[in-house]
Structure formats: structure tokens, C-alpha cells
Amino acid sequence: MITNASLADRARRVMPGGVSHELRYRTPHPSYIARAAGAEKWDVEGKRYIDFKLGAASQLLGNSCPQVMEAVAEQLTRTPYTGDCHELEIEWAEWIHRLMPSADLVRFTGSGTESTMLALRLARAYSGRDKVLRIDGHFHGWHDMLLKGAKPGFEGAPSLGVPQAITDLTVVAPPSLSAVAELQVDDQIGTIFVEASGANYGSVPLPDGFLQGIRDLATQTGKVLIFDEVITGFRWSPGGRQARDGVVPDLTTLAKVVTGGLPGGAICGKAEIMELLDPGKPRNGFAPPVSHKGTFNAAPLVAAGAIAAMKLLSTGEVQAQADAMAARLRDGINRCFETRQIQALAYGDSSTCHLYFGGRSIDGLSAAEIRTVPAPLVNGLRNGLLERGVDFMSFTSCVTSCAHTPALIDEAIEIFDETLADLVMNGVIAA
Fold first, then answer.
1. Which run of H or of E encompasses 124?
2. Which residues, in sequence order, are CB contacts of 274 under 8 Å at separation 6+?
3. What are the backbone angles phi and psi of residue 107, rounded to the nearest 5°?
4. Is the pTM of this model over 0.85?
5. Which of 198, 206, 385, 393 is disulfide-compatible with 53, CB 3.0–4.6 A?
6. Does a cis peptide bond (omega within 30 degrees of 0) precede residue 288?
């Protein structure tokens, strides 16, 4: 009989830690998902979970969206991939061009991490300056160039194997316009990189007016401004956070929802910057001026599913439903905190829900203060929810989809309350 434990034993024999992503690691073993539909999923033992992880926030349309699956299945009867140009990539790019305010031109990539790598290379080429300024705690993928500052309050790169010469090119600033402005005295800074939601899809919200303020600052100082909309893109609105707030960056990085929840990513931006990728416009002896490859960029299978997704995402109805369900979840969790007299807060923007344990407000707190949670609480909360059939995305944060319903949200709130009761009884949370 196949069980989660037996699969974990097999996995540990052939994969480091038995996982393909460090956040999937769990003791004594992870759950192995066999099937997913809508806002639910089932593991190999038949256990059901209400899904608030949703493919690391990629499944805004819900797991196994029928329209996306049908488009992919139909494309499979033609070809999954040949390595050639095809009509679907044009149509997909046209959708992004139509919906994203910054998208004069579009280039597809293999992932969100690849999108941020390419955007930074483009910005360095365009600005002629090597240093990049990023905000404390913001996440831009796992590659070397932007890893410094990903761990809140830690100035180094949170990994072995990252050369000091690389980290020296990254300047980390708190989410303060005055602090960012003061650092502009370094004339080697040519790029400003910002997670458009604030750190980790809004777990540390940006101050009011920050995006417009940093747009103005970048314009005044001649910096290339990049918005990381890997999570916010098409989730915060059909045109992402930039469309909702009316702030247009020079470049935008995309993944997750832009692909309809399939593997891949994209960048888009101003024509004068994006044209550095054009092999027909050589510069300084390079054609294209900025090199970019990628075997599976805009693979037909992904493009077919993404186009099907764009038709749904463009209406705004998907986002409205997901947002409403997130608000219902946040309100319900806050009622649990209040009823049990626990000093904690559920908060979030758009279709997100974040938890803070330590008070009823996060105003004035740093990223490190908000996101530093005692291990017993993190483990107790996550394990308690999983045992009862609720899967959050990252310990104290989650997202919703258009497939969530009021009944599912209310069921999850009841399970959350039961988990809180256990944590209080065991002395993990003070009430």
C-alpha cells in the first residue's frame, strides 16, 4: 500500500532531503498529493485538504481549472514542444500587452526566478551601472544576484555558495522613501527592484504612497525601476498591482498566474529597454545587445493554457471572487482571535491572508519583527491545520482562489479555531 511515509522513504534515497523545493520539507514526512480540483486536494492516502497554498499562489483559477486543462489537452494532440516560433506565443504576448500598463514588449522565460534574472541583466545593460537597490525582506527568486536582503533584517545572502563579489553589488534598504533617497548618493546604483505587494506577497505591506514615491525617485535619479509582480500580476487586478494603483514601472517580472498556473514566466516593459533583446538591433558588437535564451520559453503547452486563463482573468470577476473569499477568511480568523482573547491579527491585501502573533496591529513594525515567529508556534499551527485538513502556503500566510466558496471558508475558519484551542491548551499561545 502506498502511503505518505512510504513515498518519503523512497524520496530520501534519491533526492536531498527527499524534496525538490526546500519549503516542501516536513518532518516526519510531507504529504504527497495525488489529485486536486478547485480549492481542494487529496493526498495518496485519500485525505482531503482545503487548499490555501494553491501551487505557491499560481492557481488563482483554482486547481485543475477546466478551461486551462482543456486547452492544454487539445494542444497535446498537436505538439507539446518543438523549439520553434508559434502563433500561440504571439497571442499570449498580445494579452499581456493589452492588460499590463508597462508591457510595451514582452519576453517569455522559464520561471519567476529567470524573469528577475533577465530583468536585472536588462536594467544593468540599459543603465550602464552594476549595482541594484532592493528592499529588505522582498523576495525575487533564488538566484545569487538578488538573494542578499531576502531574509528580513539580515544583510548577507541567506545561503552558502553566493560569492561576496555578487552580494557587494546589492544594496539593501528598508521600505522607506527617505532611506532609499539617501542611498542614491551611490552613483553605481542603476536599478531599483521592488516586490509590488511588499515583502512576501504583502506580509509586510508597503507604506502608503511608496510605489508612486519610488517611481518618482527613480525618474528623478535616472534609475530603472522594476516591479516584481510574480505574485501580484493578474492577481491584484487584471493588470496587476501597477494597474490597480496607477503606477507604471520600467520593467515588470511575471510568473505563476500569467501562465495560467503552468511552469514559466515573463518580463515586460518599456520598448527602449526591451529592444535590447532584439537580435536585429545590434549594439557595441553584440546581436542581440542583451543575450537571453531558454529552451522552454513560451512552450506551446504553456501558451495554450495561459491564453485560456487570460480570457478568464481579463474580466476581473476571478479576482473579485478570490478577494471576497480572502476578506471572509481574514474576518473569521480575527473573530477567533477576539473570542479567545489572543493578541494576534489576520490581515492582507487582495486575495491574501497573513497572520501576525504579537498584537492587534503591525503598524510601525519592521519585516523582521513581523515575520519572526517562534518555532513552536509555526510548527504547531502548520501541523495542527494539516492534521485537520487545511493547507496554508507558508506557515502564517495563504492565498485564495476564485474556486473558494463561503462554505469552504467557513469550514476552514472552524478548523483554524480548533487548532488555536489546542495551541492555547498546550501553552504555545497565551490567551
1. helix 112-127
2. 104, 105, 106, 107, 122, 251, 267, 268
3. -135, 130
4. yes
5. 393
6. yes
